[in-house]
Inverse folding.
């Protein structure tokens, strides 16, 4: 049992790099806040230029801004860059 653990550790598997998922968001308004799994990761303006990097997988994305209805969606992020374009609806006065 110990021999197998040492051999597996010596195979270099721990050094395998996986391609990350990147979420690029282009939003209207650009100041919209982007949350991934309820954690603020930036604004539409910042994520349009520098996408949020994470592991590939399923995520809950929330886009919100003052004076606009929020938008929630479940999104599967594969390895590589996924670009999301969204226009929030203004709340009527």
């Amino acid at each position: 049992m110990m021999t197998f653990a040492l051999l597996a550790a010596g195979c270099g598997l721990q050094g395998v790099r996986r391609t990350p998922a990147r979420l690029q968001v282009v939003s209207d308004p650009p100041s919209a806040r982007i949350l991934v799994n309820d954690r603020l990761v930036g604004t539409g303006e910042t994520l349009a230029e520098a996408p949020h990097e994470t592991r590939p997988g399923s995520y809950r994305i929330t886009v919100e801004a003052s004076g606009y209805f929020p938008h929630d969606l479940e999104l599967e992020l594969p390895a590589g860059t996924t670009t999301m374009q969204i226009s929030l609806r203004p709340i009527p006065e």
User: Anything to note?
Assistant: Residues 1-13 have pLDDT under 50 and may be disordered. The helical segments are 2-10, 44-49. The longest strand covers residues 21-28.
